[in-house]
Amino acid sequence: MFSSVKRIKCLTQKLFIMVTVIGYDKRLSEDGREFFTLTIQGGVEVVQSQNGNLYMTARKSSIPSTFDEEGCKLAVGTEIPGKIEKVACEEYEYVNKDTGEVISLSHTYQYVSEEKKQDKQSSMPEFMPVDFEQNVPVVAQ
Q: 112 is in which domain, residue-wise?
C-alpha cells in the first residue's frame, strides 16, 4: 500500500520548465514614450544545422515590462515558469550583426507562460492510477 502511495505522489508532481531573464533594453513606443523590455532565454538545446552539423543554442525572446531601469537590473537572473516557442510569422529579413549576412526568416520566438501551457493540457489527467492496466472495459451484452 505504501509503495502505491509513493508512486501516485511521484506521478502527480509537476515539472516546470523555466526561462531566465538575461538582460534588458530601453525602447521607444510608437507614441514616443520610453519603456523597457526584458530579454529572456530558455534552456540549452541541441539543433541540427542545414548542412547537418549539430550545435548547441538557447532560444531568446524579449517581453515588454512596466519596470524602470532599476527594476530591470533586479530582474536579471530571475527564473520564470514557461518556455520560448518558435512561431510562424510573415517573412522578414534579418541581418547577422557579426557577419553582415542577410537572411530571410519566416518565424520568431515568443514566451509562453506555464499557465497557458496548462490551459492547452487541461483535458489531460493530472495523474495516472497505479493499477490502471487492471481496468477492463464493460461490454454491453
A: 18-122
